[in-house]
Design goal:
Blueprint lengths: L15 H19 L2 E2 L5 E3 H8 L4 H6 L1 E4 L5 E4 L4 H10 L9 E10 L11 E10 L4 H18 L5 E6 L5 H13 L8 H9 L10 H7 L11 H16 L4 E3 L11 E8 L8 E7 L3 H4 L7 E7 H10 L12 E5 L2 H16 L4 E3 L6 H10 L4 E5 L1 H6 L1 E6 L5 E5 H10 L2
Parallel strand pairs: 1-5, 7-8, 12-13, 12-14
Antiparallel strand pairs: 2-4, 3-4, 5-6, 6-11, 7-9, 9-10, 10-11, 14-15, 15-16
Helix pairs in contact: 1-5, 2-4, 5-9
The structure holds one RNA strand.
Length: about 425
RNA sequence: GUGGAUGUGGCGAAGUGGUUAACGCACCGGAUUGUGGUUCCGGCAUUCGGGGGUUCGAAACCCCUCAUCCACCCCA
């Protein structure tokens, strides 16, 4: 126990952290180009925020939150997702008073109490974006495009955008009524889960994976059939914009997001081939959320994508993330006087921003060259007693094995020039 | 929360009742004394997730427990 990490968490070790940094750099690059600015919110919030923001009837709130009392007996919760916090920050810091739209992104860990499996963890990382203050369907298209652009830069293939519109405050009740009317005659034949959803959220019944339920709900009125004029027009325009920039999508009328706050546009990006958890990105518009948590009526839209799932997809698609070279120069010193000299050289070379390493285990030359080889160093500088006596060092090119003697006073220049 | 699989050295993996727990990779050392990536030689588990039991005897059989993985639900 003592030396075992909590269930569903991960250690990112050297080598992996480098890959994560690469992904994060790509995120920052894309966001910067699209005009999104980073926001960092706390990793825990008052529990009510998620209850209200994410929705009381969602799985997240019903059974997946890491909730505990702090020493002041306040209920706090490790954030299960990013949108609620960002909305809270938007309201609390009165970002609505500044120029609109406000385009934000975040990267960081999220927490959900679930049984881990492939692509699912209790602590996992998401990159997400949110746009506040515009109902323009072009924004919906931009958000989706940004996600696809990001994946494309990483080299991912076979991604599918699933797109739907779930309507707004006006058309949702209409749809709900029609849906219940359609489903009611066969209600007793649905799975218990669906029966429970019938009153609270019949929309979710369309999303059930149970084949029996799917059959029973086949032909049910879809959200898109019941859209009000405004929502229908919005949906058409989103599709139009996507087509203009060549983002392929598939309308999926059964796509219903698991979170309660969505309105109009809902989408998921899928990669099959990474196992049961094939959704790598999910998002949509949430025009009522800011108001719901106590802010001024403000439209919003965003997505969240799972970083661990990026790695799963990269792995199955055989995509390697380029790694940095570990060392330019390896100083192999033999004997205490040489070690002293090497230590000084190391510091001087580092001032020139060369990647330099030396041996700290008093190993033999053979072992030191082996270390240089492992680090893929370009040069090994051999500093032994002989060389030291001559005020020189042997510089060995690791790839060719060529070596030459260089005076110590010329060594820094030599390595700087030939790096 | 439910179901299934698995747990042997740093990693992969053989072994399914009988004296010293294969092998591969990695790691460390050596092959005439200061030269890497190839080769050769050597080293590296008083012990088989943990606890209890059966037995003359268990890593192997039984019970309990812990952990990991996968799936369901749902999602990132």
């Amino acid at each position: 126990m003592l030396t075992q990490r909590p269930k569903g968490t991960n250690d990112l070790l050297p080598g992996q952290t480098e890959k994560w940094r690469y992904i994060e750099n790509t995120i920052r690059q894309v966001c910067s180009e699209y005009g999104y600015q980073e926001i960092r919110t706390p990793i825990f919030e008052h529990t009510e925020l998620f209850q209200r923001g994410v929705g009381e009837t969602t799985d997240i709130v019903e059974k997946e939150m890491y909730t505990f009392l702090d020493k002041g007996y306040r209920s706090v919760t490790l954030r299960p997702e990013g949108t609620a916090s960002v909305c809270r920050a938007y309201v609390e810091n009165k970002l609505y008073a500044g120029p609109q739209p406000v385009k934000l992104y975040y990267v960081g860990p999220m927490f959900r109490y679930e049984r881990p499996q492939a692509g699912r963890f209790r602590q996992f990382n998401q990159f997400g974006i949110e746009v506040f203050g515009s109902t323009n369907p072009a924004v919906d298209a931009e958000v989706i495009t940004l996600a696809m652009d990001f994946y494309e830069r990483l080299g991912l293939k076979n991604l599918e955008v699933h797109l739907n519109s779930v309507g707004c405050r006006r058309c949702r009740p209409v749809h709900k009524a029609k849906l219940q009317e359609f489903l009611r005659p066969n209600l007793d034949k649905f799975c218990p889960n669906c029966q429970g959803r019938f009153e609270r959220n019949p929309l979710r019944m369309l999303d059930c994976k149970n084949p029996g339920c799917r059959e029973l709900s086949a032909g049910a009125p879809t959200t898109t059939q019941c859209l009000c004029e405004e929502c229908a027009e919005h949906f058409e325009q989103v599709k139009g914009y996507l087509e203009k920039v060549g983002v392929r999508y598939r309308v999926d009328e059964r796509l219903v997001r698991g979170l309660d706050y969505y309105t109009k546009t809902a989408f998921e990006i899928m990669v099959e081939e990474i196992g049961a958890q094939s959704a790598i990105c999910g998002g949509g518009r949430y025009d009522g959320l800011i108001e719901e948590i106590g802010g001024p009526a403000t439209p919003g839209i965003g997505f969240a994508l799972g970083m661990e799932r990026i790695f799963s997809a990269l792995a199955v698609q055989g995509i390697e993330i380029p790694l940095e070279t570990k060392a330019d120069v390896y100083l192999a010193a033999l004997g205490e006087p040489a070690v002293q000299e090497a230590f000084k050289l190391q510091a001087q070379l580092r001032k020139l921003h060369l990647k330099v390493e030396m041996d700290y285990l008093a190993r033999g030359l053979k072992a030191q060259l082996k270390a240089a080889d492992r680090l893929k160093a370009k040069y090994a500088v051999i500093l032994g007693e002989d060389e030291l006596a001559r005020g020189a060092a042997t510089v060995r090119r690791m790839d060719s094995g060529d070596q030459q003697e260089v005076k110590l006073i010329d060594l820094i220049d030599f390595l700087a020039v030939n790096k």
